[in-house]
Write a structure and sequence with these properties.
By secondary structure, the chain is mainly alpha-helical. It has one domain. Helices cover about 65% and strands about 0% of the residues. It contains seven helices and two strands, in the order αααββαααα. Strands 1-2 form a two-stranded antiparallel ribbon. A hairpin with a 2-residue loop joins strand 1 and strand 2. The two termini are about 20 Å apart. About 30% of the residues are buried. Bound molecules: cytidine-5'-triphosphate and magnesium ion.
Length: about 180
């Protein structure tokens, strides 16, 4: 999940500037996505997710282990592994963007909390993209136990990283 976990924090650190929706509003009078979704955040986030994934692929190829656990290879060859890593990192930010779209339609202002959706939108996006990109790899690796663990552990990790982000000043709200 690392290539899916890193894009959001890196988007928060490097985001800013031109917004993806260009300031446009829909007929409901509300922004399409809002000021919290920027091109710089999107590209920086995907870049760092890809970087982490490529380092994992490389370490996996060298048989590297952490506490006896092998690094995931993400696929039999670099091409297919890269596809998975790209799906995980871009899917994370697209999931986040998709939910911002819905938050705006619900009339929620940028940065307003939507519990569980804020913590799991990027997981869902990453999984949908990865399933579409590499269905066999997805079902082999994201077993029920692993998915259940991710769904339980991710909101906790998300809350912890966002509180840190808030105190170091890259997040406007601690969620
Ligand atoms: N960010 C960005 N571009 C993205 C995603 C995130 O620039 N594609 C940056 C923004 O600075 C944003 C911060 O990361 O404020 C935190 O992201 P998030 O919590 O997803 O955005 P919110 O500001 O809470 O907006 P929303 O209500 O739409 O979730
Ligand atoms: Mg938010």
């Amino acid at each position: 999940m690392l290539p899916a976990y890193l894009p959001n924090p890196f988007a928060a650190v490097f985001g800013g500037g031109k917004t993806i929706d260009g300031g446009r509003v829909l007929s409901d009078g509300r922004r399409i996505l809002g000021d919290g979704k920027t091109w710089k955040g999107l590209f920086a986030g995907i870049f760092f997710g890809l970087l982490a994934g490529c380092i994992q692929i490389w370490l996996s190829g060298r048989g590297f282990e952490v506490l006896g656990l092998e690094m995931p290879g993400f696929g039999p060859d670099f091409g297919s592994a890269f596809k998975v890593v790209f799906a995980l990192s871009s899917g994370a930010l697209f999931g986040d963007m998709f939910m911002s779209f819905f938050k705006r339609r619900l009339g929620l202002k940028r940065g307003s909390p939507l519990p569980l959706v804020d913590q799991l939108d990027f997981v869902l996006g990453a999984w949908v993209f990865t399933y579409l990109a590499a269905p066999a790899w997805f079902t082999d690796n994201f077993t029920f136990g692993i998915m259940a663990t991710v769904v339980v552990v991710t909101p906790l990790l998300h809350v912890i990283t966002n509180v840190i982000g808030y105190f170091i000043g890259v997040k406007k709200e601690p969620w």
